[in-house]
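Q: A reviewer asked whether we had any structural model of the full assembly, not just the individual parts. We don't, so I'm hoping you can provide one. Inputs are below.
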Amino acid sequence: MKIVKTMIATLTLLMSMAAFALDLDAAKSQGMVGEQPDGYLGVVKATPAAVELVADINEKRRAAYERIAKENGITLDQVARLAGQKAIDKTDAGDYVRTPDGQWVTK
Amino acid sequence: MLLVLILVLVAAGWLYSQGLRVGKPSWDNGLSLAHWRWQPDDCAPLAGDDLVLRDLFPLTVHSHTVTVAACDSGSDDDGFVMPESLPWTPPFALSIDTLQLPELGGVVPPPLQVKARQQQQRWSLQVESPQSDLKAEYARDDGHWSLHGKGALNEWLTDWQGRWQFEGEGVWQGQPAGSLSATLQDVGLQSQPQKAELAMKARFTGAQWQAEMSLTEPLELNGQWQLAIPAPLSLQGQGIALSQARGQLQLLGPPGQVHVSASSDDGTIEQGAGRVTLTGPELDGQLDFQWQDRRLTLSPATLALPEQLSAQWKEPLQVPMALDGATDLPLLVGYEDLRLEASPSRLQWQGKHWQWQGALALQGRWQGFRLDGHWQGQAASDGLQGKPITLNARNDDDRLAFRLPLESLHRAPYGGKATVKGQYAGYPLDGSVSFRQADLGWQGTLSATSSIPGYDRGGDVSLQVPWHLKDSAVVLADGSRLSVSEGLVEQVLLRPLTVTARGPVTVSSAGAHGQVQLRGGGLLAARWRLPVVAGSARLVGKKATARLTIADWQSELTAEASLAGEIPRGSFQIDSRLIPAMGQGLDMTPQKGTLTGRGSWQWRDTLSAQGTIRLLDTAVDWGSVTARGIQGTLEGHYRYGAVSLKSAGPVTANTLDIGTPITGLSLQMESDLSQWQFTDISADLLGGSLRAPALDWPSPRPQPVVITRIDLEQVAALQNPPAVFLDGRVGGYVPLQLGTDFMVVEGARLANEETLSLRIPPSSSVQSMASANQAVKLALESLSVLTIPDFQARMNMDREGWLEAAVTIKGVNPQRNNLPVVFNYTHRENMLVLMRSLRIGDDITEKLRTERTQ
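A: Here is a predicted structure for the entire assembly that you could use as a starting point for your response.
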């Protein structure tokens, strides 16, 4: 049962991120945005389009994190950080990620 | 008798021929005339009622009224020759009850009562009015005359007040001669506060006269300046011609003293000389002047004037004293560190028309700017002509170039357009103000574009304000608009902002009056957004009231601002629902509730504010950690960048679910946002309660938390599935240190508050342990059912979360004939890991970590 719940939660996370894959991939490859340890996208090079894209995705990510947190008895912050670590791990080489001390580096 | 009758008829005929007309003659103790008038032509200069001729010797005449009318006789007074004395007349007595003289030069004389008498060639005249009286006497035999009078000035000049008095005496036998002295006391216009004390003395012999006038007390011109005459103003003349004048006057005020002396040459006032001397804190300089041949010559001078003004000319200035003339005026005028030089500079005038022609150059420093301005042209009473006026202003950071072409300023209707380009306060500025003279006054349009320096992108500012002047105020037209385009500040997207006048907005020295509409498109950042803010502001003088609404958040802000002296201050009020969208950028989600706030603010060099925030029926989620029914009131202060918060009364929450439900939470708090102090903490927990007098976060040392009546049955129920059944209640105290990101327990002690019971149900894991070892089997059998009258536990937990517990259980096993059992054990467990594993039922943490490593 635990394995099933975990799979569902993980799948939900991945689906919520994948929903914006096209725009997000383009923005990441252009170095406009990057993944952060807190589970949310960050703006690397600020443009109005980048801010709008990041804000839109983060709003939906947060909704997903909150739902997962409630379903699994943990806090929003805990889910977000777990997801952030996972997103950083899955980031393609050459894209930007943010280090815990706040620096943007290419993976 | 016949002769007398003949004489009377002859006299009557002569008088009739001179224009005397009478009405209703009768006899009543003398000849009575109900009406009479003297009308030599179309105008009757004299008329009267009720004239009675009582006696012929002395001739005694009484008239009830006599009215003197102003007739244009057309005669030339230049032919007047002063007689050598009053003429011989038979004795007479004339009395008039009411003599009404005509208006003369704006003076309306009051009704006068007149008595005139001549007896033995001694004349006397007495004139009285309600507030004035005059007596004059003249003896024809020796020519001696005297005059005395006094009265109220406003009886003769209605706009004036004060009292007058004069005396005089002399001889009039041949050439009249004598002396006069007059004083005016407390004299001045009724509409003005200034009052003067004036004295005048004059002597004359025939047409030759000389007079001296002086102020007996300094005249208060306003609250600051006084006029004094240190030496009497001396005048000499012949007839109406002035032959010599000499005088001094002094102006005394806070900036200093202005002393003016002037004296004409002997025998003529056509030429003379004088000096103006300025001394004092703000005044300095000397100006010599002379006049001759109707030309005033001002010697070169350098004058320091009030308000840091100065004036200088290096060549003598010659000013014709005529209605038509011209003069060169090469002036250098200074103000603080500014110098305005007029060179060449020529002024011409003809009657009321004047014209200046030349060039002006302005240079210097003002308000931190280096100024450099030029203009060349003509200024006349009807307008300006010439090259455009240019002015450049620079400082280390800013530069502005002003330009005003004059094409439409040389004659009415005037108009033009001034432009400014450059950079001010970091703002690039390109603006213009057009103006034109219309039927209803001046009007035009103020336009400007700029961009906000702090914006990384966008932020273009546009100002479009049609305006007109009305009653010394500038009226900004309906629809006047200030807009800021969308822009980016670091990583925050600022949506467009507009401020639009709704109806005319009047701006004057009394402030602004009108209404403007505000609309901000909101803010957008990576993790939060501020929705559209819309509202309006009403401007009433130096006070503004704004009402803003964030519709998406069901929030409303009302703010008021006003000027208390030079200090802006006001109040604010916030009313808002708490909705999940507000938590977008936070790790918590407000699910519901109401937030209201009231406060005040002021800007005295820096912003300070204070207010009260009240939360009602608020629900907040931190993921699975939920708080419901939060209520409380916080008082907050903001000053010098520091925030302080303090609860007013307890902050309560009905439930706080951290996996273990906590109910009835109540505490008070105080914080500066870096240090949080919680006091009077109480809550219900696991059937018991928790109390703490104070907990600080962060805290340098442990602070006691007392727990009582914890129901072990509810503790055991947290197990899933249950491995042990417990019953009974425990309590104790837990010294707790809350760090910024850790928690330490030091010397906690728990003990049973009643007999406890313990039961370990058979399970596969227990059976497995029992079968592995005989001693363990025996122990488990002894502990399987236990009644515990004595339970003691001591616990410590370090900042990494390692809990070390030492437990002593003394009990009996009722299923083994009350077999006494003493059980000592120590336990070491990382509570952070344990809590996480307890609360994350499906162990998602580990799974995600596992996935990450794959």
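A: Points you may want to mention in the reply: Confidence is low (pLDDT under 50) at residues 838-854 of chain B. Residues 701-854 of chain B form one domain.
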